[in-house]
């Protein structure tokens, strides 16, 4: 999904102060899809101030739609997506689920997201019953500071908003943020410096879920899917000293994949340890191993994104 710049027309109400609990409540409501008929659901979009629908929203809603068609003893272990067309936040999204297979241990589904009768996104996803197996896991970097010692993205944005040009100034001052994102490596948003294609972010919900919501593994995995598209694409931009604020940059998520090792807990901190092994042809590959606050890997994410620089 295209996320090149905020839109002044669709930004948050300048008179409304940011409210983390309201933002989280709205995000959870966003995932409560309306069932239209068997295997067909309708989702809405929230006004986050972007020109196009945020890609993580569509991934999360598509996963929720697929989960509604699967037995409760099976959880998503992997999903693979393609973003086909930009989504319009003013229009609802229809999710059509295809039941490919219900096996003894695995269930597979395909989901097509449509607007105005045209596909904007598709996803293949697989669910599995819980079972024991061989286990090993890599450890996170030893030099990662604790998230509570880092400045939140929301605080950073409000602190820097007075000196930022529009529409960033209004967006940073008023936007409701459902996620608390804390960068380990911080850079100048408007004048970044070239650095290695690596970065780390701590991520959790900006306000806690209710105990019932926190205990729901389907909701937690869908919330993680929403968060998984938030910082990945930045990683392949690092070596080129270019940011979202540069009007020459055209960027969008092209495809997206998640492998779940366990159910992430978005009430607590999760470390997105990200790198970009390569870029070329107007595209960049990004990947992340995601560890919980105790250092246990809960998921892996990969994404290819469009990073096209418009030349004069």
Q: Remind me, CATH topology?
A: Porin
CATH class: Mainly Beta
Main sheet, how many strands, which sense, barrel? 12 strands, antiparallel
Q: Pairing-aware structural class of the strands and helices? A: alpha+beta
State the share of residues found in helices, binned by percent. 10-25%
Task: Give the assembly state of these chains.
Answer: single chain
Explain this structure to me?
- By secondary structure, this protein is of the alpha+beta class.
- The protein has a single domain, classed as Acyl-CoA thioesterase, double hotdog domain (Porin).
- The protein has helices spanning 20-30, 55-67, 153-160, 168-174, 211-214, 217-227; strands at residues 34-37, 40-43, 74-83, 93-102, 106-115, 118-129, 179-183, 198-205, 249-260, 270-280, 283-292, 297-309.
- Strands 1-2-4-5-6-3-9-12-11-10-8-7 form a twelve-stranded antiparallel sheet.
- Helix 2 (55-67) packs antiparallel against helix 6.
- It is globular, with a radius of gyration of 19 Å.
Features of this protein?
disordered N terminus, 12 strands, 6 helices, 312 residues, Porin
SSE layout and pairing:
Layout: H1 20-30, E1 34-37, E2 40-43, H2 55-67, E3 74-83, E4 93-102, E5 106-115, E6 118-129, H3 153-160, H4 168-174, E7 179-183, E8 198-205, H5 211-214, H6 217-227, E9 249-260, E10 270-280, E11 283-292, E12 297-309
Antiparallel strand pairs: 1-2, 2-4, 3-6, 3-9, 4-5, 5-6, 7-8, 8-10, 9-12, 10-11, 11-12
Helix pairs in contact: 2-6
